[in-house]
Design goal:
- The complex is a heterotetramer, with two copies of chain A (about 130 residues) and two copies of chain B (about 140 residues).
- With about 130 residues, chain A is of the alpha/beta class.
- Helices cover about 50% and strands about 30% of the residues of chain A.
- Chain A has helices at about 25-40, 55-70, 85-90, 105-125, and strands at about 1-10, 10-20, 45-55, 75-80, 100.
- Chain A is globular.
- With about 140 residues, chain B is of the alpha+beta class.
- Chain B has a single domain (about 5-140), classed as Heat Shock Protein 90 (2-Layer Sandwich).
- Chain B has helices at about 20-30, 35-55, 110-120, and strands at about 5-10, 70-75, 80-85, 120-125, 135-140.
- In chain B, α1 packs antiparallel against α2 (about 35-55) and α2 runs antiparallel to α3.
- The chains are: A alpha/beta (about 130), B alpha+beta (about 140).
- Bound molecules: adenosine-5'-diphosphate (2 copies).
- One adenosine-5'-diphosphate (ADP) binds near residues 52, 53, 92 and 97 of chain C.
- One adenosine-5'-diphosphate (ADP) binds next to α2 and α3 of chain C.
Chain lengths: ~130, ~140, ~140, ~130
């Protein structure tokens, strides 16, 4: 498994993963994710476009990431096209929870909208 | 001794080897005439069973101690792949691990056995506290 | 029981499974850090040893009888893959199988052990009539 | 493994193989080869362009085919580009014996020349 990390527009962290995400490799991604939260970045896009395999270990890490992001008023979205990977999201009923999108643009727009809503909420709360 | 027509794999209880187990699932699945999609399903199911052994079978032992290996048996039959994943670990009571298969577990964790049941055509979990665990998964080629 | 850090494969004495053994060679070779070329070499070497067991180890038995499996042990060490292929067949006298490694066998047949010696970095053949055969092949990652 | 058989110009039999050639699959090719000899076809081109793996079993079958073709005044040529397959020919010293060529055109020209020579020989012999 390979992990590439970028930051877009100072607020969005994009992870591009490739290879297989299992009990051996996924913990490495979990660490990268933890570092992101440590730096107070709570908007996260995980691109699984090049990932050929995931199982419950990866799912657990993604769910944990989404939960942590939500708790801190952020969110996480997943990009994925491969049928076998999508199937794992589908049968575990996590497609909605993890904001699984077909391409990166869609995922980024979704997170932008959520962020705009969160900022509006905070503004109202602050008044 | 291996049963006739059965391929056995003994794998150290270490996550680094699960990807090798998946390679064998792919090879044996192809021999049994499974489709690529069915092989993908069995890769996840067998990996989950191995991950469970690594995570739960020897949980009580201090880390660093050498645990017993995972034993995986592949029986390719015409148009069917049967895989057993067995450990001699602490075991558990399958009945007490509530498996509501009508809906996925909502919390983190508890997904492994759920995915196994969803992805294999038939599943048997044989386990009891103190006497190890055997998970038997079967995928049929023609459905 | 498998030695710590050792992956064991028990394969029926049937040529249909040799391709599965090669998949494991690929997976374990990658873990040991071998290059694709070195993995290709080990695929041939290990396949030859398996083919020899299938062809020669149980030659005296009537066909159709169930023979003992091939036992294959993979020990990945840092930057090295060691593979043992073992059978409990009739064995042979390695010294009487003339291995002139300076030039390839000119006739058909007799190529298996020659290729093994050419492709693995080090080879040990342990065999004796009546007591089975073990071929130990090692490939180092950095040369 | 897959085998495709064609006849070119009524004299040349071309086998195009793909996949892996080992103790399990190669015997199937051996049968096809035997059928060719049964039909008195002794000029044979074996295209291994799509073959990813060979070992001593395939080598033995090819050597046997070349021997049988030569005994009957024909010949066999092999087409192969893949480094790992070429290596097996090289270390077994069978590259010459099996007329290993880089492409099909080269192999076909080689067999055409050998056939012209064989026909010339037979003519002289017959005079
Ligand atoms: N091989 C095993 N040995 C011991 N306990 C096991 C084994 N497999 C499963 N279990 C038990 O079943 C429970 C549910 O497993 P699973 O559905 O895979 O979820 P998770 O691994 O996330 O807990 C585990 O928490 C564990 O208590
Ligand atoms: N596992 C084995 N069990 C018994 N005899 C063997 C075994 N491996 C090799 N041999 C003996 O060594 C000989 C040489 O083997 P090899 O070089 O592979 O050539 P080939 O298989 O073509 O005869 C065989 O003919 C056989 O007599």
């Amino acid at each position: 498994m390979k992990i590439q990390t970028e930051t877009e527009g100072d607020w969005l962290t994009v992870f591009s993963l490739s290879g297989e995400l299992d009990a051996y490799t996924a913990p490495q991604f979990q660490e990268s994710l933890a570092e992101t939260f440590d730096r107070d970045l709570v908007w996260i896009l995980v691109d699984l476009g090049q990932v050929e395999y995931i199982d419950s270990v990866a799912l657990g890490i993604l769910l944990g990431g989404a939960k942590r992001a939500n708790e801190r008023d952020g969110d996480l979205a997943v990009v994925c096209q491969r049928a076998n990977v999508l199937k794992v999201f589908d049968i575990s009923g996590t497609r909605e929870l993890l904001n699984v999108c077909e391409d990166r643009g869609q995922a980024q727009r979704l997170l932008e909208q959520r962020r705009a809503m969160a900022m509006a909420r905070n503004k109202r709360g602050g008044q | 001794m291996a049963e006739a027509g059965v391929l056995e794999l003994k794998v150290p209880c270490d996550p680094r080897y699960i990807s090798v187990v998946r390679l064998v699932v792919a090879g044996m699945g192809a021999q049994a005439g499974l489709t690529v999609d069915d092989i993908d399903d069995m890769k996840v199911a067998v990996s989950e069973a191995c991950t469970n052994t690594i995570d739960h079978a020897f949980a009580a032992e201090e880390s660093g101690s050498v645990s017993e290996p995972i034993l995986i048996r592949f029986s390719p039959r015409p148009a069917e792949l049967r895989v057993e994943v067995e450990d001699v670990g602490q075991g558990f009571e399958p009945d007490r691990v509530q498996l509501d298969l009508s809906q996925p577990p909502s919390v983190e964790g508890g997904l492994g056995l759920y995915l196994i049941h969803q992805l294999a055509d038939s599943v048997q979990v044989q386990s009891a506290p103190g006497s190890g665990t055997k998970v038997i998964m079967t995928k049929r080629a023609a459905r």
